[in-house]
Amino acid sequence: EFNLHFDGCPHVGGGIAFDENNAFYASVWTGEPSKSGLYTITSNTNTPVKIGKNATHSDIAVLENRVVIVWDEISSEGTGIFTAHSIDNGASWSAPRRLSALDINATHPRIVLNGSNALVLWTEKQPKQTSQWAMTWLD
User: Fold this and answer.
1) Which of 86, 102, 125, 128 has the fewest CB within 10 Å, making it most exposed?
2) Order of strands across the sheet with 117-125?
């Protein structure tokens, strides 16, 4: 649908998750100029929902009564890690919430499920320092 032609591996990643009814939830990125950005799509609706224009490197998971997504996004305060959730099977999403600190470069988040909890991990780098792991539990 995005008319994207790319001879290689997608380099900005995405994610896929399934609920107990085998419905899928996916996060995908496209660089198609007229549709550039991060989207979610679910087998429940088959309609892409845009998450953000400058968002990439996403992951998605199903937690009991909600679907959660994490991604990195470029802003004036550096590249940060953000999250949103859906309580209507991916039809709409909450406002984004920043997980990483301001004025650092944080990238490549991943969600690790632990029962009904989710741990988000990413790498971050402050100026003139080496990269390090960071993490937080989702509420």
Assistant:
1) 128
2) 105-114, 117-125, 132-137
